[in-house]
Amino acid sequence: MGxxxxxxxxxxVAFGLVxxxxxxxxxxxxxxxxxxxxxxxxxxxxxxxPELKAALEKEFGLDRPKWQQYGLYxxxxxxxxxxxxxxxxxxxxxxxxxxxxxxxxxxxLGLVVAIALGILVGTLSAWRRGTRLEHLSSAITVTxxxxxxxxxxxxxxxxxxxxxxxxxxxxxxxxxxxxxGRLTDEFRHMVLPSLTLALTLYGGYALVVRSALLxxxxxxxMLTARAKGLPPRTILRTHALRNAxxxxxTMIALSAGRIVTGYILVETVFSWPGVGxxxxxxxxxxxxxxxxxAFLLLTVTVVLCNLAADVAYARLDPRVGG
Amino acid sequence: xxxxxQSPGLTADDLLQAPPGRHPLRRIVRRRPxxxxxxxxxxxxxxxxxxxxxxxxxxxxxxxxxxxxxPSRRHWLGLDDAGIDVVSLLIEGSRISLLIxxxxxxxxxxxxxxVGLLAGYFGGxxxxxxMRVTDYFLVVPALPLMIVIAAIWxxxxxxxxxVIGLLLWTxxxxxxxxxxxxxxERVYVKRARAMGAGHGRIIFRHVLPQIAPLLSANVxxxxxxxxxxxxxxxxxxxxxxxxxxxxxxxxxxxxxxxxSSGAWWAVVPPGVCISLVVMGCxxxxxxxxxxxxxxLRISHLSPRSFRLKELPAERPGP
Amino acid sequence: GxxxxxxxxxxxxxxxxxGGVVKVGISGAPFASLNxxxxxxxxxPALIQIYPALVQLDPKSLDYRPxxxxxxxxxxxxxxxxxxxVPGAKWSDGxxxxxxxxAFTFNMIVQFQKSATANYAFAVAKLQTADTPDxxxxxxxxxxxxxxxxxQVQTLGILPKHVWEPLAMGDGAAIKAFPNVPENGQPxxxxxxxxxxxxKKDDSLLFLRNPNYYxxxxxIDGFGVKSYSNQDAMVSALKSGEIDAISGVAxxxxxxxxxxxxxxxxxxxxxxxxxxxxSSQNKAKNRELLDPKVREALEYAIDRKxxxxxxxxxxxxxxDSIITPPSGKxxxxxxxxxxxxxxxxxxxxxxLGYRRGADGIRVADGHPMSYEVILQPTLDxxxxxxQAGFDKLGVKVTPRALDGAAAFxxxxxxxxxxxxxxxxxxxxGGTPQFDxxxxxxxxxxxxLGIYNTTGYCNPEYDKLYQQQSALPETQRLQxxxxxxxxLYNARPVIVxxxxxxxxxxxxxxxxxxxxxxxxxxxxxxxxxxxxxxx
Amino acid sequence: xxxxQVRDLHVWFDxxxxxxxxxxxxxxxxxxxxxxxGLVGESGCRKTTTMLTIMGLLPPSxxxxxxxxxxxxxxxxxxxRGFRSQRWKDIAIVFQGSMNAFNPVQTVGKQIAEPMERHGxxxxxxxxxxxxxxLELVGIPASxxxxxxxxxxxxxxQRAAIAMALACAPKVLLAxxxxxxxxxxxxxxxxxxxxxxTREVGLxxxxxxxxxxxxxxxxxxxxxMYAGQIVESGPVQDLYNSPRHPYTRLLFAASPSIHHQGAxxxxxxxxxxxxxPVRGCAFEPRCDRAFALCREEPPLLLSVGAGVxxxxxxxxxxxxASAVASRPGPATTVSRDQPVTLPLDTxxxxxxxxxxxxxLTVDYSSHQxxxxxxxxxxxRYLRAVDGVSLTVRKGQIVALIGxxxxxxxxxxxxLLRMIEGASGSILLKGQDISLLSHxxxxxxxxxxxxxxxxxxxxxxxxxRVRDTVEEPLLVHRVGGMRxxxxxxxxxxxxxxxxxxxxxxxxxxPHQLSGGERQRVAIAASLVLGPELLIADEPVSMxxxxxxxxxxxxxxxxxxxxxxxxxIITHDLSTAARFADRIAVMYLGRIxxxxxxxxxxxxPRHPYTRALLSVVPRADPSDRPNRQILVGETPDPFAIPSxxxxxxxxxxxxxxxxxxxxxxxxxxxxxxxxxQAACLLV
Lengths: 322, 318, 534, 681
Ligand SMILES: Nc1ncnc2c1ncn2[C@@H]1O[C@H](COP(=O)(O)OP(=O)(O)OP(=O)(O)O)[C@@H](O)[C@H]1O
Ligand SMILES: Nc1ncnc2c1ncn2[C@@H]1O[C@H](COP(=O)(O)OP(=O)(O)OP(=O)(O)O)[C@@H](O)[C@H]1O
Ligand SMILES: [Mg+2]
Ligand SMILES: [Mg+2]
What we know:
The complex is a heterotetramer.
Chain A: H1 2-32, H2 38-42, H3 50-60, H4 66-78, H5 92-127, H6 132-146, H7 149-159, H8 179-217, H9 220-227, H10 232-254, H11 256-269, H12 275-285, H13 288-316
Helix pairs in contact in A: 1-13, 5-6, 5-8, 5-13, 6-8, 7-8, 7-11, 8-10, 8-11, 9-10, 10-13, 11-12, 12-13
Chain B: H1 12-17, H2 24-31, H3 33-55, H4 86-122, H5 124-139, H6 142-152, H7 157-184, H8 187-195, H9 199-235, H10 246-255, H11 264-292, E1 307-308
Helix pairs in contact in B: 2-3, 3-4, 3-11, 4-5, 4-7, 4-9, 4-11, 5-7, 6-7, 7-9, 8-9, 9-10, 9-11, 10-11
Chain D: E1 4-14, E2 20-31, E3 36-40, H1 47-55, E4 62-70, E5 73-74, H2 79-86, E6 91-94, H3 108-119, H4 124-137, H5 154-165, E7 172-176, H6 184-200, E8 204-209, H7 212-218, E9 221-226, E10 229-235, H8 236-241, H9 246-254, H10 292-296, E11 302-304, E12 307-309, E13 353-365, H11 370-374, E14 381-393, E15 397-401, H12 408-415, E16 422-428, E17 431-432, H13 438-447, E18 448-451, H14 465-476, H15 482-495, H16 502-505, H17 514-526, E19 532-536, H18 544-561, E20 564-569, H19 572-578, E21 581-586, E22 589-595, H20 596-601, H21 606-614, E23 675-676
């Protein structure tokens, strides 16, 4: 790796920082282009007075010029402060933490299953190309890939009605349950949304793994490996998969956008109070700090994922940066 | 979303190796049964869309019966939550959804193609700036951003098209940039430049035709994503509520508890239609990409081995 | 306390089974905070259960009855109200609950009404101060007579002084920053029939019976509320027994719930669907819409029955006044809904000389009668019906879908001029109160740009509004009727339908007293007080 | 009995569009212990296919019959599994294009050790030790085993591939084009290594190549392959002196030889596609000695002298390879790449220079890593061309030769002002173009044209021949109307030897052979009527059989049209045969310059001498004492002090490390215009 790859990582980090800065700025402008403000929402109360409106505007700093708001926002950010949500007056970070804590286990479960399934199915269908097994798995994969997530969710809801909880993150009415009881309850709630995510996401991964692996299998060094007398499984494991993982890693990291899309839909279908719903809610409430925070979170997450992918890439592929 | 569909390492070098017949696309599609199936699906829906005004049995704005009336001889797939014929809605929906898909794809191609071309062809500072912008759109989660933009603009079909198109272009831009960068280094492009040919000539006569096949794969796939996103936006109530796209149908079914009412006919058909079109696009797009990638044709680790013909071998010939 | 016990105890007459937790599903409506000074919506129904009020609304008589105040007197000039509170009451944490708490709450809101407590300013209008001559008496001093003091003090849930006093300092910023959530297993300090023991933002709430409640204790151990963003999932949860009741059932799900053996209650609700017509004199174009005759014609072209049928499957009635029927006597019974009569509507427009152009669209003052209707996406079905009716009238309407915030922004326009929009379809009637004061205040000049959605600003009306707020009840009723009629005739809002409050619950439970805002509503506290296992 | 025997081998491939391709047609081959056999033939003769069959590595679309006997045991009969245990242990292979034979994400050492572990010949520490030994054996420091393939240069990778093949001490090594695409010097190093291995390790080597002189110089026996068959085999001496098959003779004739001033001829046509049965002799359409029988009946492989041949001429003496010129030329009926003999002609009158370059220097700025910017290290420059002076006159061919990376292409691009960062003066017909504006440059481009190395890449695959040739006209807005332009295009095609032009106008590049493509590229350069043509490696990517044709064409052009031509090449024999003047380049400098005769016959610079000594000669008896330079061209970032050649120079003295020599007339040189940059001459 040496200096070349160090350079490479430094460059990636710099790009990531630039991207985050661009995101912060663009988001700031964008959200303020939303018609209506939080104030007009919050002042829809009986006998709200112009004073209430003014009070709120002052409180949120919305009475200042936009560039000043931007400066303040940047200043806050630099100090690690995401601001206060208009919606419930709690720090955005606290709200986000709550939402993230709800989303992550479900999403992680779905994602891990999706990636594992994707790699498995992708590998099988590339390796066993032309066999009946491959045709079958490809058909299923492509079908699931083509189905909108919300629709899969609805169908699963019908199918598992009565068997698994139909929505929510936990049963809020378990009074005095044991911690084991709570755990199984939460897991049961997680099954359907995670399954929906897994089913709708794995296809994409499988297809990427498949084409990456197919490409690798056509490389000359695969022929070398065969010529050396290595058994197919060994070749697959030691030569093909590692090379095929390179593009796959990048793809998985970049698929974060798609995953978030999946979350929002799945969270809507399964009444899941996670990040996706929080963003959606924040849009409706014009809760700028919350929106900015959530977008920053997502952007940083994706940038970090990409960075992690780049680092992994650099570790896996000695050519990078050289 | 586009991300997952592009072959990771396909480069223009590979494209070069594909013999440039007059109709490579047709050849590719014809050779694969799955692609033929996809093309057939697309053809079917395009025909539905084109013929929609003629073959829609009932108006899509007219109540012809009770809410969620069950399928009958008159209404094969029953009625929706406003007493509108589902078959008619599906046919009309194919028009709207395909229109949105194609229009958003066009936007995405124009923007992404332009950015990719400029960045890839001119490189340097233009490339650096354009790519950072692209990075932003790449890392910002598309659907939330669409939600925001859809809320800024009034949700007309045109705006939905713009929103989707403007967020889908990044992948097109990246792919085209990579291709252009590679084609730009092709010897025949250098030769043209050495000859004194201008940028316009090089771009339009040499570069674009070369990346056209891959672009066409991207085109088809982008249509699929556009439809996907329209569905998602509509589902969240951010689509154009008055257009009868498949996404709107799903939203109505969702909002008005079609499932609880037992009205599967309001939920299943639009979902199936969306899936079929997306599948069609995917199969065709993937076939084009695979077909263009010669590296996919060889596998050194095939489950089968070569065949052995027993001696004596017959010698072909006279 | 017996909060956690689910044992079934028989009441003296031996028929009622006590205990159990009722699990209620609600649709949408996320709740962000339990601090009542934050946000306009969502948590009222929760707070009414935990914070005692001096008086409460009685579901039967639809009048205010003693609650924490066992009786009250009014001075002759109507500016001083003396409430005698229940002695010996306690907060859920054991601290004494006295008139001091009430006075503290009122004074705090008065003190910070321009900042932290601004969203409750309406309930302390003209209130100068509250004092406590003795721990069981609170006296409210008003600057001038106020007609709806009882309605206001019902809204003003009493806060525990020992919790809030330390926050009511300085500029009051700490008031809004207070999370007010159950912590370390301790419920939110409550004085009402229930206390909140668990709060998950935007997800769920758990209420358990308050053992220290001064009034009649609930029969159930408690109830939980869970928010669903998917109606089907909620219905399916009810069917599978995950929840016991739904507050706010979609009309489309009623049949299936009934046939599955659930009790479905559909009662007149506080919910309206409105067609707002821009009534601002600033209106820049299409000024013919300001003409009452044109509005009348348009109203005749609206098929309210069809809307009630298609959108609400019959669980709605054609509407007239902006005061909904469950408001009891405040709803003016003399207003008559204009029927669907396209001929008459056409006649009216013909009489105005608005002839149809070549495309079938009428021309008014040189321009086609073609308008834009702002609507929230959920109202598109109603829009379709209105559009069909207007079509027959030669009036073209095109939709412009916007979410709530954007819709209001589009209506009031920049500078709050209300210059641009023509129509807006909205789901009205978010009234959290039984009292008509709030709905009547919406079309006043004072709240232009704040929550006046119509641009209607009529000094005469405003004067009436000012008057009614100080009149004794019988005279106030007349004033309210007069205002309702004025609005009906001016039609800043064409009320399309009154929608039912539909709730459903499992037959395992009985004794609910649903309000016009659903099971989990905020009108009265009786909903769950009488509920028990069947 | 031979160690490896291939008997009556047939291979068929299923074609995607249906039908079968009979790729190998009854091939038989023997390889004895410690023998070094060459397998020669044009590209597409199925040499690689044959190698893969021997290794059992054919794809599933292949059908095989025949026998591959190793030590008397039939490998084919055992199927894939049977092969798997044998592979590498007994027979190992060095693949064609070893660039891609290594897994890019594994260290080279690991990949070398891998088959040892697999076959159990050495494991763990022993495998590591053996890997180190092998690397040392092929001349790579053992520590390099820790490195990744991309960190190796081309030559090192080729060596490593050989080391990998030797891992399990196989008895037979198949080397598929082991030197193609490598520089002459590296080529010589690799060949030396292989020969030494047969001697020291007792290896039998089957070397596949299309370079007949290379075989002639290294192997004992050779087999000539054509269209999936062996057409002749025998001791190399016999093949050279008395070829029995016309194909063998023509192959020898097509390879220019450095000191033989005999004519060079290309073989017309191209090998058959084999997707339909061939009647008669497969070579018949291209054969200059064909007669009626050849079209009717396939010839049988019969013993002739010490070897075998498959020709109906049945061992008639068809003349020795070097004597082609004295005989009537090959049949021209199907000829496209018509063989032209070169009238020997050297010294042209010293007329005014067409282009004159003085002190050309080109710097490339390196990619500046971010960490380097952060550390404020100065930007590094790579001096690709350092003070080059060159002159090309009308009707003259000047050859610029040198190893890969020495700056030849850069020089050419700078001449055309196609790169930034060049300094020095460039006079085109007396006018200094080094400061011309872009607008003026466009006019200049009409006069100076460049053709590129790779004919497969230099044509736009989507352009018909006419579009390609017409493009310069359109760009420069000359030629007027469509019809006139067509005329110009046809004329250019004719000049480039593509007659009749109508046959080519509407073809796409993939419908052309490599030679034809290069001709089209040349036609496109000629269409504007340039005065100077720069040809960058015009033949290095082409098959031997067509190379001569292209070179003849260039030669012809300068004679007929008074064109000045600058040929850039790394092939000394080409330069020696066709150029009037030769400039030898090393690391951005011209180290020797003079008339072709002087440079070839009286080389003065040690580098030129070394280069000349390693050029393979077609005559197996002419095996000169080769002076193989060690190492490779140094990194241009770290140009050695003093004479930049001194680290590799066999005769360097201490002063060479200090003083940078200038070009000067070497002592004792007969010609006034012969110059060399060496302190010792
Ligand atoms: N799997 C295959 N299916 C069909 N044809 C094939 C296959 N593999 C090789 N060929 C054919 O074999 C020919 C190349 O054969 P091969 O590589 O053995 O020739 P070669 O003599 O090694 O040529 P070169 O000198 O270019 O390496 C090509 O024309 C190709 O069409
Ligand atoms: N664009 C570039 N940027 C930086 N360095 C370059 C560039 N092009 C060439 N070089 C370097 O300049 C040196 C000379 O390259 P050039 O291509 O002129 O060599 P060449 O003699 O033509 O080699 P070959 O025979 O391989 O074509 C090489 O070390 C090469 O790595
Ligand atoms: Mg080969
Ligand atoms: Mg070069």
